[in-house]
C-alpha cells in the first residue's frame, strides 16, 4: 500500500504545527520521520490517523484521495497507529483490549472473544510476540503492552503502521526486540512510519529519512549519514553528541544515606541496607537495570515511602520521616522519572506549573490571594531561559511535547537555591537537542556547588554525567566506581557481579569496553548517540 501526503498543513490558532508537508511512503518501506520534540511529527500522524482534520492538503492511498473523519476511517483504509502513550485499558485483558471497538459477535449478539483470542495467538506465533491473550494489561511489562498495541493494529489488517516514538519507554533490550519485529513486518510487506529522534535506531531501521523541523520538511537523509549530520539537520544547528565538562571540584559530603531499607507491600526489601554519600559539587549517578530499587530510593529521599528505615541526612538534618513539603523546603530539587504523572499537572498552565511548590510564598502569594503579575513575569523569564517552545505561558502544560514538558520541570526545580538536586531518568524520551540542554543544566548545578544525584538506566548518560557511579542490583549497592570505569565492568556490575570481581572478569577476557554498552544505545563504529 502506497501512502502520500500532499501539502498537509495544520494550524491551532496562530500556531502552525504542520506547514505544507509532502511525504511519500512506499509499500514495504520503513520511512522514518526524524525531528526534535515539538517539530510537528506527532501532529502530522494524528492528521493521517483521522484524529485531526487538516487545515489544508490531502491524503492519498494508492493514488486515490481519501478523507478520514476519525480513526475508524483510517483503520478501515488499512492504517494502524501505536501511540507513544499506549491506548490500553489496564484492568482489561489483552483479548478485551484488542476486541474493543472491533467486536466480533456470535449469534444472538454475544461477544465472540474466542475468535479474537485465536487471531492474537496467530499473530503472536507469526511474530514471536509471546503475548498471553488472557493476561491483564496492567500486569504486563511496558514492552509487552506495546506488542498488544501492534497486535490491535494487525488484527484490523493494517498495511501501514505508524509507530510514534515507539522506544521512548522501552529498555535497550526491548528496543532491540522491537526493531526485529519491524524488520519482520517489513518482510511481510507492511509499510512502517517510524517517528523518532533517537539516531541509532533511525540509522539502524530506516530505508529513508525525512527530517522535520518546526513544522516543515527541511530535507531527507540517507541512513548512512553520520549521527552528527542527522543531529544537525534535526535541530538546525551544530549539536555536540558528547558533554564538555570540567573536572569536578567536590567539597564537603553534605548528603548522607546510611543503612537505608525500604520494604514493599509484600515484605520484600526493595532497597536493602543502602549507604552512600554525595559531596558538594559532584554528580553521583545511580546505574542499574530498571526495577532494582532506584525508584524506591528516590521516593524515600523525597518522603514518599512509608516503610523506610535507616537515615537520610542533608546538611546534618534528618530527612527520613519528614513530609514531601518539608523535604522540598530543606532545599531538595527533584525531577521525577514520570514527568506526566509526578512532575506536572497537565491541565494547569505553564505559568501555574512553574510555581507548584512556591504558590503560597512571596512574591507569588499576595495576602490571601495570588499575585498574577509576578506569576506571569516569572513564567515569561523561565520560558525564555529554558527555551520552552510554547505559544503562550497560559498554554496547558499537558499539550506540550515531552522535551518541553521536561524543560518546565527543570525550570521549576532549578529556580530556587538548592542544597541537593535529584533527577530521575532526566532525558527519557527527549531528542538530542533537549538532551544536550538538560545535561548542561545538570552540570551547571554541580558546578554551582550542589550535590547532584542522577538516576538513569541509560548507561551512556550515566558515564557522560557522573563523577562517580553507584550500581544497584536488587536493591543492594554492588559498588561505587569512578566515572571512567569500563562499560564492560559496569555491565557486569549491573548483572550483580561485585565491582572487584567484575574488574577481574573484564581483564580476564581482555576487553576494554570502550565501544560497547551492554544493551545500550550504540551507533555503528562505536559512537554513542
Account of the protein in words:
The chain is α/β, with parallel strands linked by helices. The protein has two domains: 3-235, Rossmann fold, CATH 3.40.50; 253-331 and 417-526, P-loop containing nucleotide triphosphate hydrolases (Rossmann fold), CATH 3.40.50.300. The protein contains 18 helices and 22 strands. It has helices spanning 41-48, 71-76, 94-99, 113-127, 142-155, 172-187, 199-205, 227-235, 294-302, 324-329, 339-343, 350-353, 372-385, 402-413, 432-447, 459-465, 487-494, 499-508, and strands spanning 3-12, 15-25, 30-34, 56-61, 64-66, 79-82, 160-164, 191-196, 208-213, 216-221, 253-263, 269-279, 283-287, 308-314, 317-318, 332-335, 365-366, 369-370, 420-424, 452-455, 468-473, 476-482. The protein has a six-stranded mixed sheet with strand order 6-7-8-3-9-10, with helices on both faces. It has a six-stranded mixed sheet with strand order 16-19-20-13-21-22, with helices on both faces. A four-stranded antiparallel sheet has the order 2-1-4-5, covered by helices on one side. Strand 11 (253-263) and strand 12 form a beta hairpin. Helix 17 packs across helix 18 (499-508). Mean pLDDT is 87; it is low at 511-529.
